[in-house]
Design a protein that fits this description.
single chain; FAD/NAD(P)-binding domain; 8 helices; 25% helix; elongated; disordered N terminus; binds flavin-adenine dinucleotide
Length: 324
């Protein structure tokens, strides 16, 4: 059967395989719901794609655990429970039929569900680019936006570009792995936690604050680039450059879905209902008064959402058999 010929009717399709989506799937399975997780990239969410090596200190049960490892444990549980998880399947559109069935579409699939759980977090985030000449040519070839394997950076001469928590946390990780660091930030103020900045300073990491990157090129295996401020220019040569200046969330599919939002986040009530009957939300994708964006809140919201979703399913009169 080709992907596009799938005709199963799910009780719930969960969009997003981050902590919120995976937790919801565990609760849905415990309630014997026919559930599927659709994940646009790899399961694990931000923990795997944005900060796999950063220790998480606020997840009860572990006083300290690298984010990637925490996500791997969740994925392991999904596999143990045999919950269908389809990766590399970005959702592009959701429509609702007159019979209250949702049709969820991507490039290679077309699925039917009685309910939808939006757990798509920040969307499919793209790193922000510096916008300097040569940047796109060197991407993945000495110039990176995330550390996927720390072994590739250990002991190297590295420039970190950025001044927020991601840049500084990654700089600390690189330092722990014997990289020789230079930090470059276009503003003269760093937005990161002062304690973390202090650690870098105590380790003698040179900071270039108020410097802009002018352009990148590769020479004899090194990334060569110029930085400049109002008074002078400086030419640097590094083994690798890490750019951490933020993310551009891609939530295109949500734009098309006529669900109430506030600042691109889905508005939910205390039971995680959205403005569309049958569509629920949880995790970083949603907002409400007092919302905190953390792993533990995402998990709690997932449990609430599945409870509400079960109530909604009970109120429907759609037969269990598959649709064609
Ligand atoms: C640098 C950093 C450090 C952090 N540190 C901590 C910490 O120490 N402790 C803590 O509690 N929280 C931390 N957070 C916050 C935490 O990561 C989030 O609150 C958490 O990941 C939210 O989980 P989620 O499942 O809602 O969203 P996400 O983790 O964003 O997962 C959403 C998933 O949906 C998928 N998706 C998106 N769009 C689509 C689509 N169109 N189709 C299919 N799939 C899609 C994505 O690929 C992703 O896998 C940190 C965040 C960052 C950025």
């Amino acid at each position: 059967m080709t992907e596009s010929a799938i005709t199963e009717l799910y009780d719930c399709v969960i969009i997003g395989g981050g902590p919120a989506g995976m937790t919801a799937a565990i609760f849905a399975r415990a309630k014997n719901l026919r559930v599927l997780i659709l994940e646009g990239a790899q399961a694990g969410g931000q923990l795997k794609t944005l900060y796999p090596y950063k220790p998480v200190y606020n997840y009860p049960g572990y006083s300290k655990i690298p984010a990637g490892e925490l996500a791997d444990r969740m994925i392991e549980q999904i596999r143990e429970l045999d919950i269908p998880l389809r990766e590399n399947s970005p959702i592009e559109d959701i429509t609702k039929t007159d019979e209250d069935i949702f049709i969820i579409s991507g490039k290679q699939f077309h699925l039917h569900a009685k309910s939808i759980l939006l757990a798509s977090g920040l969307g499919l985030p793209e790193p922000r680019r510096v916008g300097a000449p040569g940047e796109s040519e060197l991407e993945g070839n000495g110039l990176e936006y995330t550390i996927t394997d720390i072994a590739d950076w250990a002991g190297k001469d590295v420039a970190v570009i950025g001044g927020g928590n991601s840049a500084i946390d990654n700089a600390l990780l690189l330092l722990e792995n014997d990289a020789r660091l230079t930090l470059i930030h276009r503003s003269d103020k760093l937005r990161a936690e002062p304690e973390s900045v202090k650690k870098l300073q105590q380790n003698g990491v040179p900071f270039h604050l108020g410097w802009k990157v002018a352009g990148f090129e590769k020479n004899k295996g090194k990334v060569v680039f110029e930085i400049e401020n109002a008074a002078e220019k400086l030419r640097l040569e590094k083994d690798r450059v890490l750019i951490n200046i933020g993310l551009k969330p891609n939530t295109d599919f949500l734009e098309k879905l006529d669900v109430d939002k506030k600042n691109k986040q889905i508005l939910v009530d205390t039971e995680m209902h959205t403005s569309i009957p049958g569509v629920f939300g949880c995790g970083d994708a949603v907002t409400y008064p007092g919302k905190v964006r953390l792993i533990v809140t995402a998990l709690g919201e997932a449990a609430t959402a599945v409870n509400s979703l079960q109530g909604y399913l009970k109120s429907l009169h759609i037969p269990q058999e598959e649709v064609s």
